[in-house]
Amino acid sequence: MLPAAFLRGLEFDNDDERQYVTQVAKQASSRKTQIYQLCDHDSIRYGFVALSIATLNKQPCIVIDYLFTSKSYRKQIFPGLGNVKISEFLVDFAVKVAQEIDERVPIHYISLMPAHDRLIKFYAKWDFKPLDKTGWFFVRI
């Protein structure tokens, strides 16, 4: 996946956000992360979640590398997604992917590092808890 092509159609709040999404696209092109995009039938891209596999306490885990909602769709509730926001839908999707993988290969955790402290309360809805003082959070599948 070429980063320039991946960025087209996404709306960013600032250049830092654009640069981070560019990094995620580069990781995907080198197969270090897998990007799952949320699009409609007209190919409108609402957002994406990037997932990878790592270890947590010497156990394999799914890592939410990045969760992104295009700027114009943030904070909107989508009836077609079960009356949730894009970000909530993408976290639910990441949990389902992790559960499906866990059925075949024992992966007991999902981990992430919130981009900022304001997101801690958001991820707490899925029972993500701090791992330690490193800033990483986890939830058991």
Task: Explain what the structure shows.
- The protein is of the alpha+beta class and 141 residues long.
- The chain has one domain (34-140): Gcn5-related N-acetyltransferase (GNAT) (Aminopeptidase), CATH 3.40.630.
- 32% of the residues lie in helices and 28% in strands.
- It has four helices and six strands, in the order ααβββαβαββ.
- The protein has a six-stranded mixed sheet with strand order 1-2-3-4-6-5, with helices on both faces.
- It is globular and about 40 Å long.
- 24% of the residues are buried.
- The mean pLDDT is 92.
Which key terms come to mind for this protein?
Aminopeptidase; 6-stranded mixed beta sheet; 28% strand; 6 strands; single chain; 141 residues; alpha+beta
**Unreliable runs:** none
Report the order of strands and helices.
HHEEEHEHEE
CATH homolog superfamily: Gcn5-related N-acetyltransferase (GNAT)
Helix content estimate: 25-40%
The overall number of domains is: 1
Shape type = globular
Read across the widest sheet, the strand sequence of neighbours is: 1-2-3-4-6-5
The CATH architecture assignment turns out to be 3-Layer(aba) Sandwich
Annotation field: number of helices? 4
Which fold name is given in CATH as the topology? Aminopeptidase
Could you tell me how far the N terminus lies from the C terminus, measured between alpha carbons in angstroms? 29 Å
Record field, number of beta strands: 6
Overall average pLDDT: 92
Radius of gyration over all CA atoms, rounded: 15 Å
CATH class: Alpha Beta
Q: Biggest β-sheet, characterized? A: 6 strands, mixed
What class do helices, strands and sheet pairing give?
A: alpha+beta
Beta-strand proportion:
25-35%
